Amino acid sequence: MKQVLVREMTEYDLRDLFEEDYGDVLCDELYEKSRVIKKNLGLRMEPILIQRGKGRGSIKFSSIAGVLSLKHIEIEIMPKFYNQDDLWRENLFAMISWANSGRMEAQKFSNMKYTSKNIYDHIGRLYVEELEYALNRELIRSYRSVEENSRFLRGRILITEEMRHILSSPGIVWYERDGLDYENEYNYILKWCTDFLHSHCKDKRIKNRLRMVRERIPATVNRYSIPVHSKLPPQYSHYTRAIEIANHVALKKAIDELKVRLLKYIDEVVFYSVDKDVLNGN
């Protein structure tokens, strides 16, 4: 995905800014983004102002700062009071840190001065550092009940199974026991988030760290619902920050997918309505 860095309240030439991506499709997507943002934030003016003429056009962003993810382009909007792009990214993560009661450490934001990095690179760096720290301490294991049978009782006897097999398997005891294994929702979301960030990051060093750390996360057989809502056991509290970041990434992806489905549904309803009117001769 192509990244474009702009500054709030600065007017840009559409062709110069987006180059070969400039066109009606991109402008329509920006118009829709502006409409949604204006409604959600309760703004009086359009946050994305587009003016188009014959062959040329201009665009200006106002009253918003952050990252806009379009279909093929990611636009980073720098606040008007910053002149250097690295500073606004540092302050963005500092504000996130304060809003989350300091769960993300501000001293980790000192190396964000590479303009080639996108927002996923910064999130990936925070995530992989937290995950490496946690994995170096202990892997997450959960108790799970397993049904087994043998000549010796090693758990809680299963009366129903015992009666069912009393003739076919004499001398064999059927029982249930608790065992520790790595099959749990926490390992699932950690591996999922690692794969997701690896596919979205651009920085090769971060991608390599994510690839290496992925090999250390235990694999799970089952699929689990994400984000994870259950409370992490106290003995694994060193995974708290990594799972918080993974939950935020999963929630953001779920919201984006929901928006796409809703827009597709709206388009289908509008198309059906128009097509029905045409058939009726209206």
Characterization of this structure:
By secondary structure, the protein is of the alpha+beta class. It is 45% helix and 17% strand. It contains eight helices and nine strands. The protein has helices at residues 14-18, 24-41, 85-99, 119-135, 159-164, 185-200, 204-214, 240-279; strands at residues 2-7, 11-13, 48-52, 57-61, 66-69, 73-78, 142-150, 156-157, 173-181. The strands form three sheets. A three-stranded mixed beta sheet has the order 1-6-5, with helices on one face. Strands 2-4-3 form a three-stranded antiparallel beta sheet. Strand 3 and strand 4 (57-61) form a beta hairpin. Helix 4 runs antiparallel to helix 6 and helix 6 runs antiparallel to helix 7. Residues 101-115 and 271-279 have low confidence and may be disordered.
> How far is the first residue's CA from the last residue's CA?
42 Å
Query: Stretches where pLDDT falls below 50 for ≥5 residues?
Result: 101-115, 271-279
Mean pLDDT: 78
Q: What general outline do the C-alpha atoms trace? A: elongated
**Biggest sheet, spatial arrangement of strands:** 1-6-5
By DSSP (H or I, 4+ residues per run), the number of helices equals 8
